[in-house]
Specification:
This protein is α+β, with helices and mostly antiparallel strands and 208 residues long. The protein is 44% helix and 20% strand. The chain is elongated, with a radius of gyration of 19 Å.
Length: 208
Amino acid sequence: MTGLRVHHGEIEPGDVVDRAGILVTSPARTCWDLARWLDVVEAVVVIDGLLARRLTDVAALREYALARAGRRGWRSLLRAVDLADPGAESPPESRARVRLVMAGLPRPCTQFVVAEAGRFVARLDLAWPEFKVAVEYDGLWHDDPDQFHRDRRRLNRLLGEEWIVLHLTARRFREDFEGFVREVRAALRARGHRARWTPPHDRAATWK
């Protein structure tokens, strides 16, 4: 079949579980295979989903990888787990978060709740609360006028709280993500973040 890539690997007894009468690979084994065969961003997208559904957890995945030290994929799984976050609520949010971190920016909080005097103000997709900088991913639901109205009202309240909120659209993500990274970096620096050397998540060394 055109476009279909098949990989083969040995399956250990503990790597198979029964789900409603169907034998499937365990969550940990599935994450290992994803880390071995996908690029790190797409592997994290799926791992985020499994963590969010509580089908596995970070400790279990790290233990699984370390128990297979020396075998193909164990380091890749550790890397993907290090970038994963159970707070992600959609694949685009996961992709944006991972690529921001891989670009050298500090790791953001996911689904950060802003409150004022104990009252809910907003929940942000990605946030650096110590600098009051946030990123919101604008998906297709913004075609809904009512949702758009609620979102912009929420944004106005955040601006009143002195937050800088940067919006990332699907088109911007595809066509100018590097430019968006520069804007996020500039916002963080304007709020006092200072670049420091950090071990790179990618092959090239990065500053953050």
